[in-house]
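EI: anyone free to look at a 82-residue chain?
SC: sure, send it
EI:
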Amino acid sequence: MATPSADHNHDYQRGAMDIQEQASTYDAFMALTKWGSLALVASLVPLVVWFCTPAGFLPGLISAVVITVGGIVLLRDKPSAH
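SC: here you go
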């Protein structure tokens, strides 16, 4: 059985690869996760308040507005400190 040699004959050089595509994919995935989670919560909480409590439609609508506005304020991209 041949043992792998310590001599690596390939073109790979650590840190030399352009990772712009990976970085933009990661950023898009994180944005989709962040805003998708807000949309899911903002749509489910009002339905739970409306149908599973005696509160009714109006408190469910108010909770949707509060969650949406609060989520947008808290989750938006912050300006960089540069």
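EI: The two ends are 55 Å apart (CA to CA).
SC: 👍
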